[in-house]
Every structure is written in C-alpha cells, then in structure tokens.
C-alpha cells in the first residue's frame, strides 16, 4: 500500500451522492453540508451570537477564516514541496477540510462551555476522559458503525490526521505520554496524574487515531503533528489573533486608551519591572505595564526555544504602532471608511504573518514543522495578550459567563435525571436514546487501565455510556438551543412546539 492509499485508507469512498471526484474534496463537501457545521453559526466564538448580532464572529465564520488562511499558507509553502512530502504530504484540500472541521465539537458558550462540560463529565458523570473540544471534533469526523449504519462523517485518514492538533489521548497514548516529556509539547502539559490539558481523541477513538496516523510512522514522532495539522494549527492562531481583535473594536469593547496605556507603561518602565518578583507583579497586575511583563516572563518559561527579549520589545512596539496608532485610533462608527480601515488592518497583518511562515525539518518539541518566524511569533503572542487582557478579563463578560456555566450544569443534571427515570424511558428524545446505545457499544470491554487508571479499577460502563451520551447531546447544541432546552426542562417555557431545540 503506497502513501496515498494509506492516507485514504479507512475513510471516504466516493459515493454516488458525492459531488467531487477527489476524496479530499469529498471530505470538504461532507463537512460543509453537515448539520455539525451549520450549527457553528449559533455557537460562541467569544461573545454569544445571540447577544452580539452580526458584528462579531461565531464559530462558523471563524472556521471559514481559518480555512482561508490555511490555504494561503499552503500556497506560501509551495517551494518546500520536497520536504513536506518527506513529512507525509501537505495537500491544500486536506488542510482546508481540517480547518473547516477543527471546531465541529465545540460546545455551546465557547471555551467556557468546554471547561464546564469537562468538569461535569469527570466529577458527576464518571467519564475518566472528561470532555475536550478537539477530541469531540475528532469523534464527529470518525465513522462509527452501528446497526449497519455509519455514524459520523467518515472522513479520509489524511483529513482526520490533519485535525489532530494534539495527537494523544488524555493519559495513556502514546507511551511515554507527551505530558512526561521535558519540555512538553504545546497543549500536553497539565497534572501528570490527571492527564494533559489538551488532547485530540478519547479512548473510544484511539484505534481510529492510530489508523489515521499510521501513514506517518517513521516520518514523525507519535506526539508530533502532521505538517497538515501544523498548517491548520498555525492558521487557527493567526485567525484568532487578528479577527477577534477586529470584533471587539467593532463593538467598542477594545478602546485605544487602555491598550495604549498598558503598552506604553511597559516600554517606559521595563527596567524597573524586570527587577520585580513574579509574586509582586501578580499582586499588582492591574497596574499598567505589569501584565505585559508577566507575559514576557511566561513566554520565557514556556517557550525559551524562541522567546527573545529584543524580539519581544520590537513586537510590543510594532503592535503599538499598528493597533493603537492605527486600527484603534478611530472609533468604529459603521461607516465605509471604518470598514476599510478594519479590512486593511486584517489584510496587512494576515499577509505579514503568512509570509513569515516556513517549514522546519527538525522543529523544537514546543513547535510543529510549520511555524512563524521569530518576529511574527512574538507579535502573535502580544496580540493574543491584548485580547485576553482587555476582553476576556472584563467583569461584564465574567458575569455573563458565570450564568452560562450554571446553565450548562443545570442542563446536564436535568438530562441525567430524565435519562435514569424508569417511568420516562419510552419518551426519551430519540437522539439521546441512540447516543446511549452508541456509547454502550463503544465502552463495552474497556478497562480502567485503558484510561490510565490503577490496575483493577472497575468501570461502571452503564453510567459511562449515559454520561457520554449526555455530553454528546449537549455539545451538539447551539447557544440558543441550550438556553431553550433548559427553559423547557425547568418548566419555564410556555411553548410546546418550538424550534429552540431539536429532540
């Protein structure tokens, strides 16, 4: 079996209903035609779509932009074809399909929903794997057989491998597990006893992960991204760094004054700040400039392979000129001029970052084979810092998210109570019933050791099947559907027939 056949093996066969002849294009078409992809239009990127109108990105528009950037990167790397082929290939259709699919498993309410579902899944539902958005995406694109039917999108091995930003399970695969490496690959850190913070597949999809990664054996370490996954991951970083800032400029959240004060204070007081202890900086992190200094030290701690003080200083100054002196200098008023300013900022930065991307045959553990130049890597870190410092840390956003967290917990509890009620079994939502059957077939025969638990640990597979079904059900809702479903389950909704959720 040659490399191309291996990259196709176990995945898409071009069926009569498929519109493309190229299997990788078939994958792309199956993704964009799926309800999983359409759902992303109602899922939070940072602010819930229901509370922000059309001004900010949702998970669907974000995915489309990641796909656009990813194709641009592949074109940029056309001169590195020989090296990319040695690494296992870099097909533009594979990269685009993976970029479109990378957020399919994202639950309602963005990263907040991901953290809440993970905690509830492990603490209340007895799932050792918990929940992880990347693993949930991988679960969706695999093809599970049940009762003669294929569940999931059943994509080619190449696209599934390209989707694996983190090609490991939470605790057990590969061996040694990447969380035990020094340094750890990006995302693999976490509690050594509890598993990685990020991972690409649940134990139930481990055999599929192995099969998708088989063509890359001997070319890449088990924990390394494929070149195509590395392109997708880099494109995601670029889209996040640029387009989320655009959003919050549009809605007036990102203001020139506070950002300017923060960056200018660090440049002015850099020498003094470098003399302060980390504890003192954290205690005064709200003072202008102190959070930038904490960022600099955090980058040295995590990514000393690339972090450089001169490059960091230059990046802060470049972002200050371009963002503070450019985009944020004129408040957004919805005018054509304002939209042109945003479009120019986005195009200029996207091109700058794509042009700085290169392929490295033997990258550091903390990087993929496809990576940004050092100057642009530092600029992306500063842009992401501004988003975190001036958007994610806002008290009004925290207020909103605390309510969303409670909603998700209450929804999981309500569905669990319904699922274990023997008098209501016949009236369970058909999809929830099917998901339980699927999960039962998947966990049958698994042991505690498969999950990295102590030898002899007994698993309550019935409870695990119910738990995974509930998580799958909730993760497939939009923000609005989650709200509407809890309203109905709480007796607060007066509508019997509604499109707020699908049963």
UniProtKB/TrEMBL annotation:
Record key words, sorted: Hydrolase
Alphabetical list of PROSITE patterns matching this protein: HD
Keyword Transmembrane helix assigned: no
Domain HD: 59-241
One family name in Pfam for this protein: HD
Classification via Gene3D superfamilies: Hypothetical protein af1432
Source species, domain of life: Bacteria
CDD domains: HDc
Residue segments, region Disordered: 173-192
Keyword check for Hydrolase: yes
Protein name (database record): DNTP triphosphohydrolase
Gene behind the chain: dgt
